[in-house]
Amino acid sequence: MSLLTRLVFPTERTRVQYHELGGVMSHHNIGDLVLPEIGELVLSSSHRDCPTSSKSFPDGSRYRIEIPSIETPDLMKIVIAESKAHNLKISRVSQGSGIWLLKDEEITEMLDLGKANDIEVCLFVGPRAEWDLGAQATSPGGSALAPSLRGTRQLTQAIRELVHACDLGLRCVLVADLGLMMLIKQLKERGDLPLDLKIKTSAVLPSSNPASAKVFEDYGATSLNVAADLSIEDLSDLRKAVDAFIDLYIESPDSLGGILRYYDIPEIIRVASPVYLKFGLRNSTSLYPFGDHLKSVGEGVTREKVRRAAIGMEILKNFQQTNLTVEKVSKLKSL
After folding, report:
1. What is the pLDDT of residue 291?
2. Structure confidence by residue, pLDDT tens digits, 51-68
3. In 10 A of CB 259, how many CB atoms?
4. Residues 224, 208: Cα–Cα separation, whole Å
5. Are 138 and 265 contained in the same domain?
6. CATH number of the domain where residue 75 is located
7. How far apart are CA 4 and CA 16, in angstroms?
8. Closest by Cα among 47, 66, 44, 38 to 277
9. From residue 292, how far is each of 107, 297, 301 by CA, in Å?
10. Tally of domains within the chain
11. What gap in Å lies between CA 137 and CA 238, rounded to an integer?
């Protein structure tokens, strides 16, 4: 038996099932185990052709561009200026240092810039365990706690901060704690927070499978950061399970793997629509928490992120204009 045969057909029983189905692996049963369904998705471990998503944004578009880690009004102004220079439509900017490190007038200015330029502004909840008193969140084994809220104290701080920001006009918030997400949903239903407040899960609380994505959606998330390294097949499965927008790094910072997926853009849009294409920056300085001490770095990083987004859109355009058939591929000269 060849290595390929052993990999494709690990057991004789699997081989029989495969051939009985005319060469199509069953997506419903593994042995005697009946796998559950999540939304439109039937669980399977086999690879298969990914369907084109029939879902879109309310305006009918299939993708939008997001520039992350835009921490101040000055950095947002750079996004606006650079996007015009590159003839690029930016739909959302997100911030990571937290609402608490912005003055009220800065929040208002960012929201005004957003309204004037049709850009959604999404601000992060400020309090988090990694910047708090405890040591576990910064330990090697406790890093998963870093973005979470510690105790009732930080939960209360986060809710008070969010209520104040909504009073200033904020309508999109980044959340990295599942408990806070649940409370925000309840506060919206009770009328203590605006019903049109959008909840975006953080990249440090990513959906890595359809089940986790469905949990976040059920808790009120309207936009889901997903793991940056999900395959096209994984993204397709996740899209079948939820209706929420998908947020995916096309280029992620080093802290999230430093992944570059520019040539995946066409397929990502096809299977994951509606999807926010996020352009971070590998090999760059972390900006959190941001302040004037990082101003020059932040400005350079912001300009390059918009440039990277322009490169991504150029690649997408070139793909759409190219009709590379199998016959043409065979005629290409070998190197």
Report:
1. 87
2. 999 999 999 999 999 999
3. 17
4. 10
5. yes
6. 3.20.20.70
7. 17
8. 66
9. 16, 10, 14
10. 2
11. 29
